[in-house]
């Protein structure tokens, strides 16, 4: 068993409810047959802990770490043994679900569609074409999470992983003023990590526990966007398995953070036309099914009439599919104004 840091344990009380986390298990370098060299290759490829390794594909591990496939299989089976995935009783599970909190989108209709807002302990993925409002929703959530609970927030802070260089401090300040919050303080409560490569993106996600331990008020992680760097780096089909494996690792790490720290993960994903697919959905999200299986809530955003936006809930564990209309303006996200009342 790896030893845990014993200092400041009070701030991580939620950890006690969640015995299934990898950090309580051995480091991958201590697995039989691994050692420092292979461990660093594995970590470089995104397999940060035994859970990530336990769920890995031997062929992919063999390729990315340049080791024989039998060795890869052996390592993975050791990781599975070490992980000994724990189960929660139904009652414990129910208790954990009771701690779920929600961040308002700013639009009541949109919140209702999501069952009350963007949930903690979950990944919410928003996909749609350019300009559909994915980043605008991210800005709004990063501000709204800082509101008091009675106003739709969590009195919390945010982490923002920016892969496209589109974070705009001025927009945050503007939205904060609209909500009556101190713009500089709101900005200061958002920690921005600019990722320059997919490996860097993986590293930034790995940094999150450290940030949360320093600032337990962090209740939201934004990843805007999830796939941009992967898309740029992995052109062609040859490296597809490798790419998907890395994405999978990031997603599972994010899900674990959401569970462990009872925080919300919001990620954006641009859609692209797929010239290789003649009969498929031309608005399929980049990354396809891998994200679909992990994200708990999937929202498809599109532009509607008169500058309005339409959000469709595509997939959720317990809510029906549905659609709502809202608007994005200078004031941020709000309910769609009725026809007659619109001033512009
Ligand atoms: P990509 O990142 O290109 O895929 O698009 P996106 O889905 O992230 O789009 P984004 O959230 O950046 O939406 C931008 C749109 O929000 C603009 O085209 C405007 O239509 C709308 N919008 C409305 N009011 C404002 C405003 O005051 N500021 C900004 N920045 N956008 C506004
Ligand atoms: Mg964007």
Question: What's the layout of helices and strands?
Answer:
Blueprint: H1 35-44, H2 50-54, H3 58-64, H4 69-83, H5 90-98, E1 102-103, H6 108-113, E2 118-119, E3 123-128, H7 134-144, E4 157-162, H8 169-178, H9 183-188, E5 190-194, H10 198-214, E6 218-224, H11 228-233, H12 240-261, E7 264-270, H13 289-294, E8 297-303, E9 308-315, E10 322-329, E11 332-335
The protein binds guanosine-5'-triphosphate and magnesium ion (MG).
Overall morphology: globular
Q: Name the beta content range.
A: 15-25%
Measured on Cα atoms, how large is the radius of gyration? 21 Å
* Bound compounds: guanosine-5'-triphosphate, magnesium ion
Full CATH superfamily name of the largest domain: P-loop containing nucleotide triphosphate hydrolases
Number of domains: 2
What is the structural class? alpha/beta
Low-confidence stretches: 1-23, 273-280
Q: Average the pLDDT over all residues and give the rounded result.
A: 84
What order do the SSEs take from the amino end to the carboxyl end, as H and E? HHHHHEHEEHEHHEHEHHEHEEEE
Largest sheet: 9 strands, mixed
Total number of β-strand segments?
Answer: 11
CATH topology of the largest domain: the name is: Rossmann fold
Report how far apart the termini are: 63 Å
